[in-house]
Write a structure and sequence with these properties.
With 376 residues, the chain is an alpha/beta fold. It has helices at residues 70-81, 97-112, 146-152, 171-179, 193-202, 223-230, 247-257, 307-317, 322-337, and strands at residues 2-10, 13-23, 26-32, 42-49, 51-56, 58-59, 62-63, 85-93, 120-124, 159-164, 183-186, 206-207, 235-239, 262-265, 278-281, 284-289, 292-294, 354-357, 363-368, 371-373. The chain is built from nine helices and 20 strands.
Length: 376
């Protein structure tokens, strides 16, 4: 299959009038368009790499916690595909051990079946700080046991992220997970700076939804936010919906850490891709007003954000170049997950995950693993 396009983004550089050749699910060549390509239809707009979301709780009317199955994962993936996310880390919010085991098995089955878009799993909890629990159920928050550790260390889950509060997980456990390929993120934490730094020294290298549900930066107490901003080698997720973070704070974070360490994430709940305006999460009712999700007491409860909207916010509101927004939505998360050789770019040898954007940043065509996807 050959695709002729007006321009494409390759390794953060715009190339004009290019022809892509795709075989099976891989890009095998990129070259300037020539006269012999005249028979090929021209795709107008900008080809960019498919987006990768490392924190997504649900979509298409399902929440992973409530339906830990391959069918639910497929429904989530298809819902977010409409918004350019060709790769997901389905995220399990703090829950009891049996649900965690069901979720892990669903992920393992999805990975073994090559379910489109499922890259692995993100366990957001249950080893968190109750004072910073957010919408997480406090009754499920607990220390990390051998049972959970065995779950995280499974080798059939694809990529694995575990979010922990470092005041509740010992550095030697963080080191053990890190040395076994698990990406340890810090979040939902009230830890002081010294505790956060020790966790990073032990192997933690990411922060879950920067600024949200973590100890704030103050003049004499840097907190988790201060350490996150001041450690150049760590990554951080950013929920760019303007509800979770003031745009000024988003700008500051991007300026300090750079587009190569900030990852756009959605933290999306199950309402994405539906017209529903509420759902039950445990005993809590979550209500959507506009694009904001809250509990009855006003606590933010995940988001109603899709990755395309996050990219648009970065470009239209933060005034970032499109290539920088795409890097944070594609290349940077691929780097964080250790998938840079196969994902996050339009380059020879990469998986053919492609999004075609018009001048208004709307999706006009999309390919996942080389397969054309009909956008509805």
């Amino acid at each position: 299959m050959q695709l002729k396009c007006e321009r494409l983004l390759s390794s953060n550089v715009w190339l004009n009038k290019q022809t892509l050749t795709i075989e099976h699910d891989k890009i095998i060549s990129i070259r300037p368009t020539i006269e012999n390509d005249a028979h090929l239809p021209l795709y107008k707009g900008s080809f960019v790499p498919g987006f990768i979301d490392v924190q997504v709780n649900g979509g298409g009317g399902v929440l992973f916690n409530q339906q830990p199955s391959v069918a639910a994962l497929t429904q989530m993936s298809q819902a977010h595909l409409r918004f350019g996310s060709t790769g997901l880390m389905p995220t399990l919010i703090t829950d009891e051990l049996p649900v965690m085991r069901q979720a892990a098995q669903a992920i393992a089955d999805a990975v073994s079946q090559n379910t489109a878009g499922i890259l692995g799993v993100h366990f957001e909890g249950p080893h968190l700080s109750k004072p910073k629990k957010g919408v997480h159920d406090a009754s499920f928050i607990r220390p990390l046991s051998d049972d959970e550790l065995a779950l995280y260390l499974r080798k059939d889950l694809g990529k694995v992220i575990v979010t922990v509060a470092p005041e509740n997980v010992a550095p030697d456990i963080i080191t053990l997970m890190s040395e076994n390929g698990i990406k340890v993120c810090l979040g939902h934490s009230n830890a002081d700076a010294d505790t956060v730094l020790k966790a990073i020294e032990a192997g933690a290298d990411g922060f879950t939804h920067l600024f949200n549900a973590m100890s704030a930066m103050q003049s004499r107490a840097p907190g988790m936010v201060g350490v996150a901003l001041n450690t150049p080698k760590t990554y951080a997720g950013l929920i760019l919906d303007h509800y979770h973070i003031d745009p000024i704070c988003s700008e500051i974070a991007i300026k300090i850490k750079g587009i190569d360490k900030i990852m756009l994430v959605t933290d999306a709940m199950g309402l994405i891709g539906t017209d529903d305006d509420s759902f039950m999460f445990g005993e809590q009712k979550i209500t959507r007003i506009g694009n904001k999700l809250t509990t009855d007491n006003g606590t933010l409860a995940g988001s109603h954000l899709d990755m395309l909207s996050a990219v648009k916010h970065a470009v239209n509101d933060l005034k970032l170049p499109l290539e920088d927004a795409i890097a944070m939505a594609s290349t940077t998360p691929a780097n964080y997950l250790g998938l840079r050789a196969s994902h996050g770019d339009i380059a020879v040898g990469q998986q053919a995950d492609l999004v075609l954007l018009d001048d208004d940043l709307n999706i006009t065509a999309l390919w996942q693993s080389g397969q054309s996807i009909i956008i509805t």
